[in-house]
Specification:
globular; alpha+beta; six-stranded antiparallel beta barrel; single chain; 22% helix
Length: 189
């Protein structure tokens, strides 16, 4: 494969993963840095990809630690691995947060099935599960929309790595703020 073919293939994998729950790249590792400078990693679900703009959409609870971490430092890394053909995709870039009152979040919320919406009900992520008095329950808890946010990730670089029996391959791609490819090169694995 040429560098151009690798770039097209990687983004096609990501675009397909947003629509296919069985794709290995549907679930990505999102890495941010907490208030103490410690790296934090967690799995997220890829919801949408805009290949032309090199943008990925991820949904999250606005009460989660990752929301606070990204609010403080929007630089993040997304990492995925596809067992066939043994390809790792590492994307570095920045995240834009769109809270419950945003048009972006409202539109994304309107497209979610009830079962997915229910994941935003209840207490904040990471809190102990306990019984809350009925008086503490709010209308927002009823549908979870008040806690729903959209993370828009804009890729600045893509590090593509393929494991092979011999001669592993690795390529690095850079993109401008509009998503145009600005450089690509083969590098030592």
């Amino acid at each position: 494969m040429t560098l151009a073919e690798v770039d097209v293939s990687a983004w096609a994998e990501l675009e397909g993963a947003a629509a296919d729950p069985q794709s290995a790249f549907r679930y990505l590792n999102l890495c941010s840095v907490d208030a103490y400078g410690r790296p934090q990693a967690r799995m997220v679900v890829l919801r949408r990809v805009d290949v032309a703009r090199r943008v990925l959409e991820i949904h999250t609870d606005v009460r989660s630690p990752k929301w606070q971490e990204i609010s403080a430092d929007p630089r993040v890394t997304l990492l995925g691995f596809g067992p066939q053909p043994k390809v790792q995709l590492r994307l570095q870039g920045s995240a834009e947060l769109n809270g419950p009152a945003s048009e972006c979040a409202a539109e994304a919320w309107s497209l979610l099935p009830r079962s997915t919406r229910s994941t935003y009900m209840g207490g904040p992520p990471g809190d102990d599960i306990g019984e809350r008095p009925a008086s503490e329950s709010t209308a927002a808890d009823a549908d979870g929309q008040a806690f729903f946010g959209v993370l828009i990730f804009r890729a600045e670089t893509l590090d593509w790595f393929q494991l092979r029996h011999a001669d592993n391959r690795r390529a690095v791609f850079a993109y401008d703020h509009l998503g145009a490819l600005t450089s690509s090169r083969w590098v030592n694995p």
